């Protein structure tokens, strides 16, 4: 009984941390997914349950950033549709293909995303010098950004770890410098992707509901708390935090890949 209570306490705490992490920088799965595995939940079920549990947190985080989100009104309909289609495709892919082959790509994807975000400021300045008139509005996403978002949405529907890091990297490279604004867009699109994936996993019966319900409440609280905290952190410190999260995720999944 004590061991079972300890497992659920660990999952609840990890879900709170995951919700807060996702609202600030992404990478919350780094906390919640290993906690589910440690509690004895099978990997595929843990992956699906984790997605369902973090879904309300993504909604609360998006709501907390609703004012910043309005600045992307021109691109929001297209991006939302892409997130919807990509999230559904990724969820179906998870149910159709084994995790093993795709899991070997995860650390490489995270490494590329983290390094891209780390040098995004310099890349953005370089692109601006090479094509100073290529972007008519800093709040309008270009064709390249839409294509990248489709890939990220598929990835997020399939597994989700590092999805926020990938989104932040793509937006930063395109010249978006306000961390709160790109966090707002990232949280909204993540909420859509999670929503579609949740429907897919629940319909397939791939969710452990006792563990998921435990995580739902604490992840939502963590998501809203993290979004409020993000407004009090200096932009430079938040960028360093995001890069650190990305590197930790990369290291973790490289170790996981080589120990399987």
Structure in a nutshell:
The chain is mostly helical and 260 residues long. 80% of the residues lie in helices and 0% in strands. It has one domain (2-259).
Could you characterize the architecture of this molecule?
The chain has one domain. The protein is globular and about 50 Å long. The protein is 80% helix and 0% strand. The protein has 13 helices and no strands. Mean pLDDT is 79; it is low at 131-138. The protein has 260 residues and is mostly helical.
Write down the overall geometry: globular
Poorly predicted ranges: 131-138
Report, as a whole number of angstroms, the end-to-end distance: 31 Å
Radius of gyration: 17 Å
Number of structurally distinct domains:
1
The description of the largest β-sheet is: none
**Class derived from helix and strand content:** mainly alpha
Q: What is the mean predicted local confidence, pLDDT?
A: 79
Q: What's the number of helices? A: 13
Into which percentage range does the β-strand content fall?
Answer: under 5%
Oligomeric state of this protein: single chain
Q: What is the tally of beta strands?
A: 0
Q: Helical amount among residues, as a percent range?
A: over 70%
Order of helices and strands: HHHHHHHHHHHHH
């Amino acid at each position: 009984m004590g061991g079972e209570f300890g497992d659920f306490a660990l999952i609840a705490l990890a879900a709170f941390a995951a919700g807060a992490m996702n609202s600030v920088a992404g990478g919350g799965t780094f906390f919640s997914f290993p906690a589910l595995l440690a509690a004895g939940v099978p990997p595929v079920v843990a992956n699906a349950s984790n997605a369902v549990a973090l879904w309300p947190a993504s909604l609360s985080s998006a709501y907390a950033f609703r004012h910043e989100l309005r600045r992307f009104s021109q691109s929001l309909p297209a991006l939302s549709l892409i997130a919807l289609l990509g999230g559904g495709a990724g969820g179906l892919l998870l149910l159709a293909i084994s995790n093993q082959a795709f899991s070997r790509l995860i650390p490489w994807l995270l490494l590329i995303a983290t390094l891209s975000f780390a040098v995004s400021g310099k890349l953005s300045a370089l692109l601006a010098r090479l094509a100073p008139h290529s972007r008519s509005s800093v709040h309008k996403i270009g064709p390249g950004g839409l294509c990248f978002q489709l890939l990220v949405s598929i990835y997020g529907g399939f597994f989700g770890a590092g999805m926020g890091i990938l989104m932040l990297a793509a937006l930063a490279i395109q010249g978006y410098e306000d961390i709160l604004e790109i966090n707002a867009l990232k949280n909204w699109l993540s909420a859509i992707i999670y929503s579609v994936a949740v429907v897919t996993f629940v319909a397939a019966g791939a969710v452990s509901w006792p563990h998921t319900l435990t995580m739902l409440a604490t992840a939502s609280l963590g998501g809203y708390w993290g979004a409020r905290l993000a407004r009090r952190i200096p932009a430079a410190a938040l960028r360093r935090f995001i890069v650190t999260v990305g590197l930790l995720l990369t290291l973790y999944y490289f170790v996981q890949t080589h120990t399987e």
